[in-house]
Amino acid sequence: MNSALTILIVGAIVFLSHWFSGIFEKKGIPDVLLLMLVGLLFGPILGVVHAEDFGVAGPMFTSITLVIILFEGGLGLKLQELKNSIKGSMALTVINFFATLLIVGLIAYFFFDLDLLVALTLGAILGGTSSAVVIPMVRLLKIKEESRTILVLESALSDVLCIVFALALIEANKSGNLQVGLIIGKILSSFTFAAFVGIAGAIGWSILLNRIRTIQNSIFTTPAFVFIVYGVAELLGYSGA
User: Fold this and answer.
1) 10: helix, strand or coil
2) Which residues contact 114 (CB under 8 A, 6 or more apart)?
3) Which end of the chain has less Cβ packing within 10 Å, N or C?
């Protein structure tokens, strides 16, 4: 795709996203849904944009976007609300993920004649609510703070389950051997060590922050450190989310 056209489209999408956000506030129509429709229009329908056009930058851009969304969503969470909501979030995450996995998997298996493991893999991929969708949406909804916290946590936790289960099922489909214990171990290690990296990073940054603030134009240092923490967690093989 021509670089000038790409820049033009990016600028148009930014303007549209702000406009759609205003529509969401006034009419209650989710801005994410409208942006998805724009994506479908420019992609499969009109064929203006193709997956190949994004190249290496596509996945990188989505990761950066996810980091920003999760960070911004986390800024509004309070420790007390987290304590009160963690149990409900875990229950909602588990029920929602496995119910979706089974329902989608069974539909794909019986109605679309897919292999069972392939069908379950599809269910695992679609099992999460997606933090990229939920967090911006709940921020604008008029709901209780506890409900907002539960939904934010559920979306982040389900992202991890989607990744771990989808990769495990893909591997099982290749080898023909589904190792349940290995999946559970990966989930626990992903949550535990990723949380450790995040907490250690937060404590370390809180200590350094007062010194960093003395540096001129240091406003972007916190987001930069968030990228570092995310990258470290991913490089160690855990979920940066």
Assistant:
1) helix
2) 108, 122
3) N
45 and 91 share one domain: no
Kindly state the tokens that stand for 23: 């529509």
Phi-psi category of 55—alpha, beta or left, where left has phi over 0 and alpha has psi -120 to 50?
A: left
Are 85 and 145 members of one domain?
yes
Closest CA to 94 of 61, 125, 52, 127: 127
Residues of the chain with pLDDT under 70: 1-2, 53-58, 73-74, 76-77, 132, 175-180, 182-183, 213-219, 238-241
Residues 217 and 240 in one domain: yes
Closest C-alpha to 31, from 132, 180, 149, 154 = 132
Indicate whether 70 and 164 sit together in one domain. yes
Q: In this structure, which amino acid lies at residue 210?
A: N
d(CA 43, CA 4): 18
Dist CA 54 CA 68 (whole Å): 20
Orientation of helix 3-27 relative to helix 131-140, angle to 10°: 40
Domain match, 168 and 184 both: no
Where helices occur in 28-144 by DSSP H, the ranges are: 31-40, 51-54, 57-75, 79-111, 116-125, 131-140
What is the reported pLDDT for 100? 92
Residues 188 and 119 placed together within one structural domain of the fold: no
DSSP label at 186?
A: H
User: Do 214 and 136 share a structural domain?
Assistant: no
Residue 202 tokens read as 């937060």
pTM above 0.85, yes or no: no
**Domain, as residue range, for 164:** 56-176
Q: How many domains does the chain have?
A: 3
